[in-house]
Amino acid sequence: MKSYNRINGWMRAGLVFSSLLLSLNIATAGTWKFICVADTQSGISVSNSVNTNVCIPMARQIVNEGPDFVLVPGDLIYGNLTVNRTNMLAQYAQWTNTFSSIYSAGIPIYPIRGNHETFGDDTNGTDYLTVFGASVPSNGPAGEIGLTYSFTHNNALFIGLDQYKNPQQVNQAWLNSQLASNRYAHIFVFGHEPAVQVVEPECLALETAARDLFLKSITDIGCRMYLCAHDHFYNRARLMPKSGGSIMQVVSGAGGAPFETNWDGIYGQNFGEQAMGSNCYYSTLTNGYVLVTVSNFNVTLEWKGSTNLTTWTTYDIYSYQVTNPAIRNPNDFDGDRKADPAAYQDSQVTAAFSDSGYEIFGATMGGPGGIECSADFDGDGKADPAVYNPTTSLLLVLFSARSYAEGGMNDMGGDGCVPVVGDFDGDGRADPAIYDATSGQLATWLSTLSYATPRGVALGGTGWLNASADYDGDGLTDQGVFEPASGRWLVLLSSHGWTPYGWVTAGGAGVVPAPGDYDGDGKADFMVYQPAGGQWLCTFSGQNYTTTGGLTGFGGLTMTPRAGDYDNDGKTDMAVYDPVTRTFYARMSGSGYRLTGMSL
């Protein structure tokens, strides 16, 4: 076992505490923002290809917003009726001059071709690439370098898709590879043409089968927003793909092109797809841009427009929150969506980071009698090493978002209390909590209430063990307890107004609860672990709690459960730690539950 003063961000922690968690003041993955604006072409002529009257003051306003970068999904310029390299380059020069205030402010611009960029250029987009090819990532598919690309920023993946190398289609194979390797909380996809027709019939629906695959791929992976343009106005619509689910289509085409005022409010009219779109907000005769603010796992979109190009007003707001994967997987210390083998022994939290080839890191903290309760307290997508000591009533946390600076909370319970891990208010941050079996009280300090007076509930009592988890799949941890002697579970479901529900599973001497989503349906299952025989027995929520399954011979009297999703397949894997040999063992669902192990 190694001991560390400081190694790769994990620090040795002393016993210095604040009365409130430092996560009140920390800068996490943070609050950051970007702009999306498109259809800035004038609609007039090749000699006056950009609407400078609109775009110059709008560019200045965009700088005032202070975005990290700007997305421009197409129709930057008017284009040309015939291939004319000199004229196309002149038009692009007008565009870059028009938006010079953004460039001068050091704000990156990420464009994607629209149909007007193809008017006057060759099929390879030579003129377009001459101007923009070097300023965007070169990680696109063969034949589309500089046209299609992706990049990451903070906790988000951005994918820009060209739709003219193969008209009205995206490179689906390349897109699939990008989505499959994603490890970021947010995904934003942008391209020029709407997936479902608003006004113009020239949209991705012209290639219906390919469009359906595109929508299914980004919806299934958790993308919540497709940013596009083409129609000359602002429109936000909820799309209902044929494959199920929903995604927001945001048309940001009010950047200066002549307004289109002939929309009748019907989506997919030329394709019989009226049921695929539901209008949320529509604005014409107003120029403007989309401002997206990301705060950890929360996203807020604002449509900001102006009729006089002096005063800019927010006309539409849309917000959503994605699930913090580290909340469902509290052993994910490196934020790669895989639980990391970890243990707490001899006052040291030790973890093997999966994204670093399982290199081992450690932090000494807590002291004798400490109980590990690592979780993502700062909402940056990484578990923070944490230990609760009932003897001193102190919780110590090393915040990953602050380079593992320490913070804590005092006066939390006392002898007989155990820490509880979970996000009880659904804000993407773990909340400090303890369970006192003697009094049958489970107390939580909610981050959304600034960790004020704890909220306590009476649950269980002597002989009961904490078993809190998200049993209803609503993103909030449900307070729960388990009685080994009887095999009874008692859970307060957040989606049912914290109404108590009870179940009975296997029990017995030494049996401990190990709830988790073992069947991958988004809900915690009732799993118990019997150390004596190394027996695991689960009642599955995906089978309406009518089916049980399990495993014997995996564990032992000295081994403690460390269940988590170690292979990122969406299913909790059975795992144990043996403190005698300091060895971690797992049986991962993605590899047929084959036994794997490593020393910690």
Strand content of the residues, in percent?
25-35%
Query: Which secondary-structure class do the elements indicate?
Result: mainly beta
**Overall pLDDT confidence:** 91
Strand order of the largest sheet: 8-9-10-11-13-12-14
User: Got a strand count?
Assistant: 40
Radius of gyration: 27 Å
Principal-axis shape equals: elongated
Main β-sheet description: 7 strands, mixed
Spatial gap, N to C terminus: 7 Å
Number of helices: 8
The low-confidence parts are 1-28
Helicity level, as a percent range? 10-25%
Describe the structure in your own words.
The structure is a single chain. The chain has a seven-stranded mixed beta sheet with strand order 8-9-10-11-13-12-14. By secondary structure, the chain is mainly beta. It starts with 5 loop residues before the first strand and ends with a strand. The protein contains eight helices and 40 strands. The longest helix is centred in the first third of the chain and has 14 residues, at 52-65. Helix 6 runs parallel beside helix 7. Helices cover 12% and strands 32% of the residues. The chain is elongated, with a radius of gyration of 27 Å. The model is unreliable at 1-28 (pLDDT under 50).
